[in-house]
Design a protein that fits this description.
The complex is a heterodimer of chains A (about 600) and B (about 190). Chain A contains 17 helices and 2 strands. Chain A has about 600 residues and is mainly α. Chain A has a single domain, classed as Cytochrome c oxidase-like, subunit I domain (Cytochrome C Oxidase, Chain A). A two-stranded antiparallel ribbon of chain A has the order 1-2. The longest helix of chain A has about 35 residues, at about 95-130. With about 190 residues, chain B is mainly α. Chain B has a single domain, classed as Four Helix Bundle (Hemerythrin (Met), subunit A) (Up-down Bundle). The relative contact order of chain B is 0.15. The chains are: A mainly alpha (about 600), B mainly alpha (about 190). The interface of A and B includes residues 236, 245, 279 and 282 of A.
């Protein structure tokens, strides 16, 4: 037992639920670290794999950015590694560029951000925050991770066969996706990933409903848990239609069916020999029925993380906790009926467009409520500017920019001008990159002490933050200018072939150097991450003086998490309670009689 | 370490973990088949003509009754456990398993009669959606049979150790089985009759 920590419960007499804290179960290396059923180990596995994929997906983009900044010039240093059929003499082929683009999107969304935000943080933090000994189905949890791992390996392996990886964008629109190489492995990989998140989401919901500690009612749940709860429902209900769509596209590729293949299709002057009668738009409907809720799968856990960190570092209760919760739930419902705002250009008709742009305007309301509540939480606070807080604070304006630039895209008339330009890329990257990924970094700095028992270095953390913050804005801000100027996305030569882009090409250089700079500024983080595991300052149970349940467990928590059965006495954010001796009153501290 | 509410019900929700889990899983299955049924509707409403009478209604109807009967035996297998009648439980579970097998044999005859006539999924969008929907449903039948085989074989030992947990597991298998049955009850009129 740690002597330095704040003992949960103080004078309260606890019954020892079980004795796992005292004796060590010796499971051996493989059962303990590789095929573990402990939610914390699985969470760390998810987080670590997700971080590796984020780095890999980002590297793909840094290579693409060379081609956009210097079209047709050999890629320096690593150019000759790619071989003759991808980059002869180090000069990238258009097919390889398309592969990098499709796989960048797929990897970042399905293998990087979601596994880190949901699989990593959800798995590690959520059971601790609700006072559970583990997830409701630990073996299923292990299976989720390994199915995700197989999906990741399939995606990585898809680069190697002849023809290379998928090259029809992460959205895989047919008929292109049905006839271009590499797509079969992409689809098989996706079916693994979908199955994994399905198993995971069942586990998350059951855990939150069934394993909450005594006294932890729904309205006492930390907002992070609420965010994970809504996210799990989105994954549970939105992913199966994509699985169905994936099966149909696989049938089109393997069994020669024509679900998405129209009659009379001609490719490169030759008619395509399929039965036809299919509907390419059907794929877009099925795909976006998942992929729009997926946006909220990406953003809700980030909002959850940011809320925890803002409450903790402002030393104030969150402003409007109930409004936050209701907004998150409303967001979840609405996200199922906005999908076709991605399809204004498909000619689906003005009635459909009118419906979907109305729902899209409605869904912006709960997002604004959440952002406003978080912003107002800062009012009058004496803020602790720790590294996690810097990342969390940066999330607010970054997500704000991402959200506000989305409004013109949600309205059909303005979308017609902006559709398929760099403006769209700038918009959704502001939501996901300096938005969600910054929140994920905040979460790593915030919960690292709980996972390892040591703090990450603050100086390196601040270097990482400021460097990343400046570079990432230089990457995405010029894209709005390019997009408003009409520069199309998915241009192999960066848009040089069109005269109207002449004034915009210089920004490709700015973006390129900013992206490579952003890569350099991740080095302090990588160094900090590994060196802090070994040499970081040791911490007790509650280094941030926080109020939620995870901070009553030892750092790092043993198998089974809590030494005594946690009991909850109050809401999650009781900071600076008037008349209290300390500026925080943890959920697990009993009322003084 | 013990996970709470694996067998007993949590007082405020009235559910053990597994029951909530299986219902959530079925919710996601509804979305999966829902997407495929939507595909059917969109393909059919977009088609210039839609084939009629391509499928053998009598075989399809026989399979409908076989699956309904298997749902009844599945309930009996669970109810027998609740009445602590192990022999009857074994009998009904084996019956359910066999009925599922008969369903698949029937399906095989249907499939092969199409194949011999050269009617492959690539032939038309009707056959494409027919083979995809019934194929996926068939995979669900096989999945259910694997689970039943497990509870007839190595999984049966749990009855001695923890009869309540075993009965719960049979109940969850049953919920899944009724769902697979229900999907067929939608599939039959949609594909064979309409």
């Amino acid at each position: 037992m740690d002597k330095t920590g704040i003992h949960p419960g103080g004078t309260h007499v606890h019954v020892h639920a079980d004795a796992h804290g005292e004796h060590h179960e010796d499971l051996g290396f493989w059962r303990k670290y590789v095929f573990s059923v402990d939610h914390k180990v699985i969470g760390i596995q998810y987080a670590f794999t997700g971080l590796l994929f984020l780095l890999f997906g980002f590297t793909l983009m840094m290579i693409m950015r060379w081609q956009l900044a210097y079209p047709g010039k050999p890629i320096p240093l690593i150019g000759l590694w790619f071989g003759q059929d991808r980059a002869p003499m180090g000069i990238m082929l258009p097919e390889f560029y398309n592969q990098l683009g499709a796989m960048h999107g797929t990897i970042m969304v399905f293998l990087g951000v979601v596994p880190l935000a949901v699989g990593g943080f959800g798995n590690f933090v959520m059971p601790l925050q609700i006072g559970a000994p583990d997830m409701a189905f630990p073996k299923l949890n292990m299976m989720s991770y390994w199915v995700y791992f197989c999906g990741g390996v399939t995606m990585l392996a898809s680069f190697f066969p002849k023809g290379g990886a998928a090259q029809s964008g992460w959205t895989s629109y047919p008929p292109l996706a049905v006839i271009s190489p590499g797509q079969t492995m992409w689809l098989i990989g996706m079916i693994f990933l979908i199955t994994s998140s399905l198993l995971g989401s069942v586990n998350f919901i059951v855990t939150i409903v069934q394993l909450r500690a005594k006294g932890l009612s729904y309205m006492r749940l930390p907002f992070f848990v609420w965010a994970q709860f809504v996210t799990a429902f989105l994954l549970l209900l939105a992913f199966p239609p994509l699985e169905a769509a994936g099966i149909l596209q696989l049938m089109d590729r393997i069994a020669g069916t024509s679900f998405f293949m129209p009659s009379g299709l001609v490719v490169s002057g030759k008619p395509v020999l399929v039965a036809g009668d299919g509907n390419p738009l059907l794929w877009q409907h099925l795909f976006w029925f998942l992929a729009h809720p997926e946006v909220y799968v990406l953003i809700l856990p980030a909002m959850g993380i940011v809320s925890e960190i803002i409450a903790n570092n402002t030393r104030k209760p969150l402003w409007g906790y109930k409004a936050l919760v209701y907004s998150a739930v409303f967001l979840g419902f609405m996200s199922f009926i906005v999908w076709a705002h991605h399809m204004f250009m498909t000619g689906m008709g003005t009635t459909m467009s009118a419906f979907f742009q109305t729902t899209t305007m409605i869904i912006s309301i709960p997002s604004v409520v959440i952002l406003t509540a978080l912003l107002l939480s800062l009012w009058g606070a004496s803020i602790r500017f720790t590294t996690p807080m810097l990342f969390a604070l940066a999330f607010l304006p970054m997500f704000g920019i991402g959200g506000l630039t989305g409004l013109p895209l949600g309205l059909a008339p303005s979308d017609i001008h902006l559709h398929d330009t760099y403006y769209v890329i700038g918009h959704f990257h502001y939501v996901v990159a300096p938005g969600t990924i910054f929140a994920l970094f905040a979460g790593i700095y915030h919960w690292f002490p709980k996972a390892t028992g040591r703090k990450m270095n603050e100086l390196l953390g601040k270097l990482h933050f400021w460097g990343s913050f400046i570079c990432i804005n230089l990457v995405f801000m010029p894209m709005f200018i390019q997009g408003l100027g009409g520069m199309n996305r998915r241009m192999y030569d960066g848009g040089a072939q069109y005269a109207h882009n002449a004034q915009l090409l210089k920004y490709n250089l700015v973006i390129g150097f900013a992206a490579w700079g952003l890569g350099l500024f991740q080095l302090p983080f990588i160094f900090n991450f590994f060196s802090s595991i070994k040499w970081g300052a040791l911490v007790d149970r509650n280094p941030w003086e926080a109020t939620t349940l995870e901070w009553s467990a030892p750092s790092p928590p043993g198998h089974g998490n809590f030494l005594t059965e946690p009991i909850v006495y109050r809401g999650p954010y009781e900071y600076s309670v008037p008349g209290s001796a300390r500026d925080f009153t943890p959920q697990f501290e009993p009322e003084k009689a | 370490m013990n996970i709470p509410y694996t067998v007993e019900e949590r007082p405020d929700t009235g559910l053990p973990n597994g029951k909530l889990g299986i219902w959530l899983f079925l919710a996601s299955e509804v979305m999966l088949f829902g997407a495929l049924f939507s595909t059917y509707i969109i393909l059919r409403t977009g088609a210039l003509e839609w084939p009629h009478g391509e499928l053998n209604i009598w075989l399809g109807m026989a399979n409908t009754f076989i699956l309904i009967a298997s749902s009844v035996t599945m309930v009996m297998a669970w109810a027998s456990l609740k009445m602590h009648d192990w022999g009857k439980h074994r009998l009904y579970l084996i019956l359910t398993f066999l009925l599922a097998g008969v369903f698949l044999v029937n399906k095989y005859f249907e499939y092969s009669s199409h194949w011999t006539r050269g009617e492959l999924p690539s032939h038309s969008t009707f056959l494409a959606i027919y083979f995809t929907l019934t194929g996926l449903h068939g995979l669900h039948i096989i999945g259910g049979m694997i689970v039943m085989a497990y509870f007839l074989g190595p999984g049966a030992k749990l009855w001695q150790k923890n009869p309540d947990q075993f009965a719960n597991r049979i109940e969850y298998t049953g919920l899944y089985w009724h769902f697979v049955d229900l999907v067929w009850i939608f599939l039959f009129p949609v594909l064979y009759l309409l």
